[in-house]
């Protein structure tokens, strides 16, 4: 091994050690150690994510039906309009508060990728994530309503009415 190569490897190892010891590189404590409620208590607060699609109203109606069921749940909606930084900043503040929340959504692929990364970074747990391709007919609206209801009630999601020419969606359920 040449001297130059050995020096480079030593430098990389030292840099890795320094980076790992920095406070911002440390793993964040688990949500249970930060005073957040247990996952069973998270079902009392439900936040629905929608991305401005034609199925948003039907999805929200299904979530509202599940929340109205006995159990005293509260519902809030978080519209994700495109990939706007302000929208994701407000979602990030929701993820980092001290209240446990069930996060459900029917959103586009790009938004879903960012949401899942934010949830995992905040110490949340992804309960389910499914990809769908759905048309814009009446059957799709009924499916979106049933999907919203099942995600908010943490039950089995309905079968997707597939459409080769439909719009791509991602449904997700997370506990934060």
Q: Could you write a compact summary of the structure shown?
A:
This protein is of the alpha/beta class. 43% of the residues lie in helices and 21% in strands.
3D structure, described in words:
This protein is an alpha/beta fold. It is built from 6 helices and 5 strands. The protein has helices at 3-21, 39-42, 56-68, 85-95, 109-121, 138-152; strands at residues 45-50, 74-79, 102-107, 125-134, 167-175. β1 (45-50), α3 and β2 (74-79) form a beta-alpha-beta unit. The longest helix is centred in the first third of the chain and has 19 residues, at 3-21. It starts with a helix and ends with a strand. It has one domain (30-175). The protein is elongated, with a radius of gyration of 20 Å. InterPro entries: TAT_signal (IPR006311). Keywords: Signal. Residues 1-27 form the signal peptide. This is Twin-arginine translocation pathway signal.
Residue windows where pLDDT falls under 50 for at least 5 positions? 24-42
Tell me the overall shape: elongated
> Quick one: biggest sheet?
5 strands, mixed
Could you give the distance between the termini? Answer: 49 Å
Tell me the series of helices and strands, N- to C-terminal. HHEHEHEHEHE
Structural class given helices, strands, pairing?
Answer: alpha/beta
Extended strand count: 5
Mean pLDDT: 77
Number of domains: 1
Strand percentage, roughly? 15-25%
Total helical elements:
6
| Amount of helix | 40-55%
Calculate Rg over CA atoms: 20 Å
Which strand order do you get reading across the main beta sheet? Answer: 2-1-3-5-4
InterPro entries: TAT_signal
Protein name: Twin-arginine translocation pathway signal
Keywords: Signal
Signal peptide: 1-27
